Amino acid sequence: MTFSLRAHAEEHAHWSYNDHAGTGPAHWGALDRDSRLCKTGLQQSPIALYTRSAKRLSDREIALHFGTAKGELVNNGHTIQFNVADATTNAVAYKGVSYALAQFHFHTPSEHRLDGKSFPMEMHLVNKDASGKITVVGVFIKQGRKNAALPGLWDQLPAPNAAPKAGEVDLAALLPASHKAMVYAGSLTTPPCSEEVNWIVMEQPIEMSRQQIQAFQKLFRDNHRPLQKEHGRKVLEESAM
Ligand SMILES: [Zn+2]
């Protein structure tokens, strides 16, 4: 299945996070035929993750190859997203397949929960293989020190429909020091909620200052999808290289 996430964001411009407006998460499954999985899917994301019940992956099946990424920061009306220009240099290897980084974006509050805990924000690094299959790396963000890996870019977040802002991000510095992660089979957390998405959710959160978190929340008060049913899925734990 090959498709462009950006194209989908435009096709589904009528969805929102506001259930009162009739276009929020509770209504996504009825938006159109493409989005039915949002309601009927059995492998939907996000879910509540528990480190205690996770089974350990026997092999080292994940390797993160993240360095510097050049691209553009945009406000697509649903989130702040950094579209990577040089996707080939940043990638995730998972079960022998390489997924190139296409974009990363943010949610507030966090979509996944870790051991019952929610975080102020969550970052999603969206990676695709040659056939369009997706592996997302999720990173929790807690309030703490000012994050220096988002220089300049974060100081003036683009308003909706503002011109894209070109920049560079050191992803190696942005990711947490520990690469211990929870791994499971899920979906996109926005319409059309496509499944067969590999999720790698890092256990150690990164930090942003209160000002940095508030700068995002000024633009997006709440852009998280509620927790979905597990439907008996197995969650594995792995230390990515
Ligand atoms: Zn996301």
Structure in words:
Strands 2, 3, 4, 5, 6, 7, 9, 10, 11, 12, 13, 14 and 15 form a 13-stranded mixed β-sheet that branches. The protein has a two-stranded parallel sheet with strand order 1-8. The chain is mainly beta and 241 residues long. The protein has helices at residues 5-11, 37-40, 171-174, 210-219; strands spanning 48-49, 55-56, 62-65, 68-75, 80-84, 91-94, 97-107, 113-114, 121-128, 134-143, 165-170, 180-187, 195-202, 206-208, 236-239. The two termini are 28 Å apart. It has one domain (5-239): Alpha carbonic anhydrase (Carbonic Anhydrase II, Roll).
Radius of gyration: 17 Å
Biggest β-sheet strands, sense, barrel: 13 strands, mixed
Q: Approximately how much helix is present in the residues?
A: 10-25%
Q: Examine the secondary-structure arrangement and name the CATH architecture.
A: Roll
**Which residue ranges are poorly predicted, with pLDDT under 50 across at least 5 consecutive positions?**
6-12
Instruction: Determine the CATH topology.
Output: Carbonic Anhydrase II
Give the terminus-to-terminus CA distance. Answer: 28 Å
The percent range for strand residues is 35-45%
CATH class division: Alpha Beta
